[in-house]
Amino acid sequence: MSETPENNTTKYKRIILKLSGESFSRAGERGIAMDEVVSISQQIQQAAALGCQIAVVIGGGNILRGGQFKNESASIQEATAHYMGMLATVINGLALQDALESLGMSTRLMTAIHMHGVAEPYIRRKASRHLEKGRIVILAAGTGSPFVTTDTAAAQRALELEADILMKATRVDGVYSDDPEKNPHAVFYRTLGFDKVVSENLRVMDGTAISQCREHGMPILVFNFKMDGNIQKAVLGEQVGTLIDPNL
């Protein structure tokens, strides 16, 4: 039984929120900008206050991407580079944890690669129990395996933890037929079915993540987290971003 406060207006009881590493830095920059992290944390706090259980899967692209070393240097194996990228997500996780706790939130940082000095190991049942107790669970280090993106890790955790929806926070309003920053005539989609996402090769998440969600009927919401209050609106079921609906 959930120990979080109940709110009848909340559409989703449990969500996986996927944050890219770039959401931790200012546009066009690298590294961590704590004002950006605190801003996201405030939105998460608002959503959690509604009674929604929130687990956050984070990327590490603001620090390092495992794929950036591909074909660059024979001295770093590609698998090693991916592990380096996983460690970058842990750095982001520590920053997010402190930002959330500075707002009075209870958190747990869990990692797919064991590092007991800074985080708990990811154990599905334990993560679920943390959520039931109203803690924000931060899931770092992807799946713990190389050659797997954090998008796929988010899909995997959404299924494992029986989330109601996977929410991907981006810097654009949702899913378009083309890159809206390059093509002013790109069409915005309010709702989509998985068939259309696959047939038109729409850039939502990586193919493995889409395949997993499609196979198991996990809806995906892609929305702009830079619009203040959008995470709260999404949890309430208000119309924000693009909903990829397994029933369409």
Automatic annotation (TrEMBL):
Catalytic activity: UMP + ATP = UDP + ADP
GO molecular function, a single term: ATP binding
GO BP annotations listed: 'de novo' CTP biosynthetic process; UDP biosynthetic process
Localisation: Cytoplasm
Record NCBIfam families: pyrH_bact
Similarity annotation: Belongs to the UMP kinase family.
Record-given protein name: Uridylate kinase
Organism (species): Bremerella volcania
This protein's encoding gene: pyrH
